[in-house]
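Field notebook, page 252. I keep forgetting to write these up properly, so this time I am using the form the group agreed on. The chain and the ligand, 2'-deoxycytidine-5'-monophosphate, are recorded exactly as supplied. Prediction of the bound pose follows.
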Amino acid sequence: MRRVAGENGPTAIGARLAIAQSPCQSAARMNRARAYSSGPVVIAVDGPAASGKGSIARALARHFGLPHMDTGMLYRAVALTMFRFGGDPASEFEAVRACEGVAQIDPTDPELRSEVVGSIASRISTYPGVRAALMDRQRGFAGQAAGAVLDGRDIGTVIAPNATVKLFVTASAEVRAQRRVRELLERGMPAHFEDVLIDIRSRDARDSGREAAPLAQADDAELLDTSEMDLDEAIEAAIKLAENKLAALAKA
Ligand code: DC
């Protein structure tokens, strides 16, 4: 089990949910980020649901040899805790309390990725109290000496506003719905395109329209629209954008 930097207890929220690489993988590639910068390289990847940002962030982490955190998993773990133990997503108080149970969630639990849990996560992530309860873990991870890749909705704007590289990954709602349907079917879960599209649109509206840390492209983020790309192309484009940015910073 890996700890999130800056935290003390192995059972702290995010410790089990930090999707990080194995040490041998990182060691082999650690120099790639160091080749550009003597300081820690932090890559922020934001974007709407099913934009491909998670796969892109994982690929960037592998490429540069950096630890990776999927911050959406923290919100999903709160949501799953409430779903399992009967918390009311309409209550900010209950959602904040559920943040304490997040470390008990198995990060490989397939239910974390279910539509119902994603939808609850989108609701409870509008609460400032929930965002505050999960913030230190994310900032601690972003601030570790090794550098980091984090993906989510507010990484470049709130969690790591000084990130070395910021990407905003997006795609049309229809393309994202198609990808989500494929993903759910592959996992043996039921999925209907129209339902998924409606859910994606309402999640977009909630993620972008909320007052607390809404989904937004940071002014200094590079936009990557993956609507016309397959995953390999999107990853290649993201790596190129990140390498160009790092090279430009190294020259400056
Ligand atoms: O990326 P995801 O679909 O797994 O995220 C689930 C929900 O969590 C999403 O609807 C919004 C919320 N979230 C957030 O508000 N801020 C983040 N940094 C990550 C996720």
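OBSERVATIONS:
- The first helix runs from residue 23 to 29.
- DSSP finds eleven helices and five strands in the chain.
FOLLOW-UP: compare against the apo run.
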